[in-house]
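thread: overnight batch results

M.L. [08:02]
morning all. the overnight job finished for the chain we discussed friday. pasting input first so we're all looking at the same thing
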Amino acid sequence: MGVMTAEAFTGLTSGRAFTVRDLEAMPDDGHRYELIDGTLIVSPAPGWRHQTVAGELFVVLRAARPDGFVVVAAPFAVQPSDSTELQPDVLVGRFDDFTEKNLPVAPLLVVEVLSPSTALNDLNYKKAAYARMGVASYWVIDPVSVTLTVFELTSEGAYELLAKVSGDEIFQADKPYPVTVVPRALLGQLAD
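M.L. [08:03]
and the structure it wrote out:
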């Protein structure tokens, strides 16, 4: 990952937290720029395995999608406030909730595909941010161990482990709509 110098951000924040307006000034350098409560998170471009898994899951979710739902792959902004903007690898929301530019409310489902550079953020900071937003279902896919971990938001506002499946095991989701996911199938040709 490239190093961002202090000069690159001169004048952007002047001692204050970042806002979504500041993201527009970020360089178009292949990195993913996200905000959680005004804190900037910079991630390198994802690798082939990551993109394959995210793409295959997008296809599975899109094929099962009933009317009124939208499936979107990154980069697309979930922007519930001026201090938070996240770009999940895959998300599902209600058609009527989207604007041309972003999704200003909590998605129904967020999926993050782990990579060495994003695992800490995905499993901790982003997970907590999605819970605060009210994202009902949070899925994490590890493309190396070929595992899908499914969390559901409880009435207390915390994620509870619903399922963990690996390889050729089947996960039958009820939320946000019925869909069947087999982790190994998400590897596409890489599973051969």
